[in-house]
Design goal:
Layout (H helix, E strand, L loop, with lengths): L1 H14 L8 H16 L1 H6 L3 E4 L1 H11 L2 E4 L3 H6 L1 E2 L3 E2 L3 E3 L5 H18 L4 E3 L3 H8 L6 E5 L4 H12 L4 E5 L14 E2 L11 H20 L1
Parallel strand pairs: 1-8, 2-4, 2-7, 7-8
Antiparallel strand pairs: 3-9, 5-6
Helix pairs in contact: 1-2, 6-9
């Protein structure tokens, strides 16, 4: 981040040689650049501020490096499968509003997404950071933030970083990229890598797994 800011300052001085570096205009523009770099979740990971950890390396990160696993999936995904001992604070919660506009959105969501994936219509959990702070008040603690596919957890790391957590890990690719044995102890009726899948796609997956098993037995 420091290199990018210094480069910005150098470029600014070349383009505007008469503009003093201590001017209010310069400081305001530099501050904007710093904020943009530090709050972008992809940049946090790319810069190493948030550590990307693959599912196959997650157990070692927790056992040897002291990371605590924070599962930010919705409750209905976690109920299907979860890592034993993991903490849970959902980044998204089910939207229970029954106003006309929300109901219309829910119908559209069900027709295009919900029927196939089984996902509920959700909203951002407004108390996400507060709930994390209650269970992990020490902001120097090492947290490995995880979701199903890695996108929601990427958003969560950005929010947690802004609130002061500095030792954050991101489960790269999410639980979907995990294979049997990556996490020694898993609870729930489904495999961890399939917990995000629901609706019609879940039954389609079951058929594919069955056909694959039949194919192996016949070979």
């Amino acid at each position: 981040m420091e290199i990018q800011v210094n480069h910005f300052v150098h470029t600014l001085s070349l383009n505007h040689p008469k503009q003093p570096l201590h001017s209010h205009h310069h400081h305001r523009r530099t501050a904007v650049v710093v904020h943009a770099v530090s709050s972008n979740p992809q940049q946090l990971i790319k810069s190493g501020t948030v550590i990307a950890i693959l599912p196959k390396d997650a157990a070692a990160a927790m056992n040897e490096k002291g990371y605590q696993l924070l599962d930010i999936r919705p409750q209905w995904e976690r109920e299907k499968s979860r890592v034993s001992g993991s903490m849970h604070v959902p980044l998204f919660v089910q939207d229970m509003d029954n106003g006309l506009i929300t109901l219309l959105k829910k119908w559209v969501h069900f027709g295009y997404i919900g029927l196939w994936t089984g996902q509920y219509f959700t909203m951002m959990n407004p108390d996400f950071v507060d709930q994390v702070e209650k269970i992990v008040p020490d902001k120097s603690a090492k947290l490995l933030v995880a979701c199903g596919e890695g996108l929601r957890s990427m958003m969560a790391t950005s929010k947690l970083h802004k609130s002061g957590y500095k030792n954050l890990g991101w489960l790269a690719g999410g639980f979907n990229r995990a294979v049997d044995g990556d996490f020694p102890e898993v609870e729930g009726p489904e495999k961890l890598q399939y917990a995000t899948i629901g609706g019609a796609s879940y039954y389609f997956l079951k058929i594919l797994i069955l056909l694959q098993a039949v194919g192996k037995s016949n070979s």
